TrEMBL record:
It comes from the Bacteria. This is Uncharacterized protein. It comes from Halobacteriovorax marinus.
């Protein structure tokens, strides 16, 4: 089945939209969890390695969001 460029662009836009939504949810939940971990250190020490891993995870999500935005920009410039 051969799709037109418009169909391919619409499919790509839907994919970028769907993955972007999931990344934003993951980013928000990761930031909330990280904030809670850092706040709870005063009450009960949290494994610093766990905090570092969560920070690394949130940073990776932030980078993916930038990549999706860049890809979206490329797609918009083609159509």
């Amino acid at each position: 089945m051969v799709e037109s460029m418009d169909d391919l662009a619409l499919t790509e836009r839907k994919f970028l939209h769907d993955i972007s939504n999931q990344l934003v949810v993951a980013q928000g939940m990761g930031n909330i969890a990280l904030k809670k971990f850092k706040e709870s250190e005063a009450d009960a020490p949290v494994d610093q390695k766990a905090i570092e891993r969560l920070e690394k995870s949130v940073k990776a999500i932030d980078k993916m969001i930038v990549l999706v935005k860049e890809r979206r920009h490329v797609l918009h410039s083609l159509v």
